Automatic annotation (TrEMBL):
This is Endonuclease MutS2. Its EC number is 3.1.-.-, 3.6.4.-. Pfam families: MSSS, MutS_V, Smr. It comes from the Bacteria. GO terms for biological process: mismatch repair; negative regulation of DNA recombination; rescue of stalled ribosome. The gene is mutS2. Belongs to the DNA mismatch repair MutS family. MutS2 subfamily. One of its GO terms (molecular function) is rRNA binding. CDD domains: ABC_MutS2. PANTHER family: OS10G0509000 PROTEIN, OS10G0509000 PROTEIN-RELATED. ATP binds at G332, P333, N334, T335, G336, G337, K338, T339. InterPro entries: DNA_mismatch_repair_MutS_C, DNA_mismatch_repair_MutS_core, DNA_mismatch_repair_MutS_sf, MSSS, MutS, MutS2, P-loop_NTPase, Smr_dom.
């Protein structure tokens, strides 16, 4: 992307705004180096990651960046096996903790919140909590090592504390003894040794070593001889303590060196997350949304707002281009908002192509362009002796040399700065040349000739910025489809210009021109209403369509639930009857055993009557159940291959894949399972053939909708059997959805799940090739499969 356009469209100001939301210098550096991405896949992925971060911030609150610092210099130092300072070590530990917490922050799903891209990024994080805990246990703050860092350090500090207590008692006693020779009755420390302030005239009265002298020269700081040994012992312990601290720091630094690749990788991911969540923080501030992205040059932004204008005063605009027309000519008075509209289009395009969410309404669409050109503003150059016209023309020459069908060109006051007749002719010629190439163009102008050009040329559309004549102020609203009216007479009249001058001016203008201006005004008024009604109608139509699909799906589910519940009830009733029969047979058997003990024939007859009553009652219940069962679904009479039927025992619909055999059994397909069942156990599906066809078409349409098919599937936490079933189903959907490459996330673990998936992919019909993930894709924790 050319830097001139980035500067003119104020892209760098947006980056500065986003930098304010970063937590580290590393995150700021990523933003500094950022430019619009060069392919549509990257644009969509980075927009998705920003949107996922925005949803996480909205639902889970702040990201876990507490205590994070830029530790790149410390990591470089550790990679050279150098010893680190306490501050560097504790900041590396804080970075490692941040990386580990991010896995939970992104991974813990709530309300079916999907964070596919962020999960793919965080899958590369390798927690090393043991090293993290060791550093936090050993180092208390940026400059303090904990007593618990090692047993030797604890022992040395305890000894030092005891020795200091002893020397304090001793020196306090000496202060009292030599009180008359001292400047003050106190002791102090010079060079880590306890000393007392002796008057210079009494230096011979206090035997010891002179360590320092006061600035006046009246006092000598003397270490009494009786303190020398104690001070020596303290100094020796302090040296041992210092050596032990250095050893601890060196040991921790070496552990970081041993894990330098993991530490460095985790840090890079944290910097990337800092960058992503900074984009999300800015999106939250400007109430931004994720746009749809296409490669066809179609722009359709609803209620677009310039992000650098105060949200309280900015006026949203509906901007569309690239469908019925590829060039848009905006006319209107000065200070009416033409240039702001131009910059809004260009800046929103640049933001979207850089992975930033855009300030617009849901459903807005942007396009991917290889290049965006902008000729905006007065760029006179004294050094180059260029006039306003020459400056613009130099820029336009560069645009014409490079623009193509994958370009967007923005022109402010095209052809201005020279003779109006020649300028208008040049402007028309430039627009026509770019239109013929397929370049998408938005241009502002004052020339009436361009209004006429747009009216009579296919693929070119007029637009205007609305102006309120009553208040003599622009409304900043963009109206597409109607050229702008100058309103010069109305404005002049309201400002006090005499009527006779305005009348004379009107007479100097041809009747056709005046009629044209009146027609423009009439069209403008009608267009405003039509545009508003059309937008509202489209929004209502879309909402109605969504509601219809939603309730149709609910109805379908309710019918299935009702049917399944009734089949389940019938099955339960049969089970109870069977159990009751078995129980009654056991009772009767026991009765017969009792008969052998001496019951009369009359008693036997009564028992048999009771048995028949139980049997008849159970049979009548079973008949009733069968009748109810028939009302729910009749038995299949003629089984056909490929027919969809209901199997009550599995409580689901199955497909018949074989003809009945001698045993009266058929083979059916239930998901990925193939089982043999009796024909008499099958029931006719309740749905009619037409309903089935509609459901099948709807299901296929849903599968073929690429936006409904994720580019990855997560198997973590599944066993091998469940994972194979899930992947098989997912590969079918991916193939129908037209995906060329998918990612299967199985984690690293023991490798059992990865082996099972690999074995399956070797023989799967949809898979052309497969490989383990590369760096940034998840490494050995994922398998990337190429679909045929």
């Amino acid at each position: 992307m050319n830097t001139k356009s980035l500067k003119v469209l104020e892209y760098y100001k947006i980056k500065e705004k986003i930098k304010a939301y970063t937590h580290t210098t590393a995150g700021k550096d990523i933003i500094d180096n950022l430019e619009p991405y060069t392919n549509v896949y990257e644009v969509k992925e980075h927009l998705q990651e920003t949107n996922e971060a925005l949803l996480l911030l909205s639902r889970k609150g702040s990201a876990p960046f507490e205590g994070i610092y830029d530790v790149r210099s410390a990591i470089i130092r550790a990679s050279k096996e150098a010893s680190l300072m306490p501050m560097q070590l504790i900041r590396i530990a804080q970075m490692l903790r941040c990386a580990r917490l991010f896995q939970n922050y992104v991974g813990n799903k709530t309300d079916e919140l999907s964070s596919r891209v962020l999960e793919d990024i965080c899958i590369g994080i390798v927690p090393i909590k043991k090293l993290e805990d060791e550093i936090f246990m050993a180092i208390i703050s940026d400059e303090e090592i904990s007593d618990r860092a090692s047993s030797l350090l604890f022992s040395l500090r305890k000894s030092l504390k005891d020795k200091n207590a002893s020397v304090k008692d001793k020196v306090t006693s000496l202060v009292r003894t030599y009180a008359r020779y001292l400047q003050e009755s106190l002791y102090t420390i010079r060079g880590d040794r306890y000393v007392i302030p002796v008057k210079i005239e009494h230096k011979g009265s206090v035997p010891g070593i002179v360590h320092d002298q006061s600035s006046s020269g009246a006092t000598l700081f003397i270490e009494p001889m009786s303190l020398v040994n104690l001070n020596n012992e303290i100094k020796e312990i302090m040296l041992k303590e210092k050596a032990e601290v250095e050893r601890i720091l060196a040991e921790l630094s070496y552990k970081i060196y041993e894990n330098i690749n993991i530490v460095s990788n985790n840090a890079n991911i944290v910097w990337e997350l800092d960058f992503i969540f900074a984009k999300a923080g800015y999106a939250l501030e400007i109430n931004a949304i994720i746009p749809k992205v296409n490669e066809d040059g179609v722009i359709d932004i609803t209620e677009a707002r310039h992000p650098l204008i105060d949200p309280k005063v900015v006026v949203p605009s509906n901007i569309y281009l690239g469908g019925e027309f590829t060039s848009l000519v905006i006319t209107g008075p000065n200070t009416g908002g033409k240039t702001v509209t131009l910059k809004t289009v260009g800046l929103i395009q640049l933001m979207a192509m850089s992975g930033f969410l855009i300030p617009a309404r849901e459903g807005s669409m942007v396009s991917f362009f290889d290049e965006i050109f902008a000729d905006i503003g007065d760029e006179q150059s004294i050094e180059q002796s260029l006039s306003t016209f020459s400056s613009h023309m130099t820029n336009i020459v560069n645009i014409i040399a490079k623009a193509d069908i994958k370009s967007l060109a923005l022109f402010d006051e095209l052809g201005a700065g020279t003779d109006p007749t020649e300028g208008a002719a040049l402007a028309v010629s430039i627009l026509e040349n770019l239109r013929s190439r397929g370049t998408k163009v938005v241009a502002t102008t004052h020339y009436s000739e361009l209004k006429g050009y747009a009216l009579k040329t296919s693929g070119v559309e007029n637009a205007s910025v609305e102006f309120n004549v009553d208040t003599l102020s622009p409304t900043y609203r963009l109206i597409i489809g109607v050229p702008g009216k100058s309103n010069a007479f109305e404005i002049s009249k309201r400002l006090g210009l005499p009527d006779y001058i305005i009348k004379s001016a009107r007479e100097n203008i041809s009747k056709e021109t005046l009629e044209f201006e009146e027609l423009v005004q009439s069209l403008q008024e009608k267009s405003i209403k039509v545009e508003r009604d059309a937008r509202e109608s489209e929004a209502l139509k879309l909402e109605a369509s969504k509601l219809k699909d939603k309730y149709q799906e609910k109805l379908y589910k309710l019918e299935n639930i009702r049917e399944n519940a009734m089949y389940e009830a019938q099955r339960e009733a049969k089970r109870l009857i069977k159990n009751a029969k078995e129980e009654s047979d056991v009772i009767l058997k026991n009765m017969r055993e009792l008969e052998k003990l001496g019951y009369s024939s009359e008693a036997r007859q009564k028992l048999e009557e009771e048995r028949l009553k139980i049997k008849n009652k159970l049979d009548s219940i079973e008949i009733h159940v069968e009748k109810n069962n028939e009302t729910l679904g009749e038995k299949v009479k003629n089984v056909k291959q490929g027919e969809e039927v209901y199997l009550p025992s599995l409580n689901q619909k199955v497909i018949v894949i074989s003809k009945p055999d001698k045993k009266g059994e058929v083979q059916v397909q239930a998901g990925i399972m193939k089982i043999n069942v009796k024909v008499e156990d099958l029931r006719v599906s309740k749905l009619s053939a037409e309903d089935k066809k509609k459901a099948k078409i709807k299901k296929r349409e849903m599968k073929l909708n690429l936006s409904n098919v994720s580019t990855s599937v997560d198997l973590r936490g599944m066993d091998s059997e469940e994972a194979i079933f899930t992947v098989d189903k997912y590969l079918d959907e991916a193939c129908l959805g037209g995906l060329k490459e998918v990612t299967i996330i199985h984690g690293k673990g023991t490798g059992v799940l990865r082996k099972s998936i690999t074995d399956m992919l070797k023989r799967h019909g949809h898979v052309k090739a497969y490989r383990l993930g590369n760096y940034g894709e998840g490494g050995s924790g994922v398998t990337v499969a190429e679909i045929k």
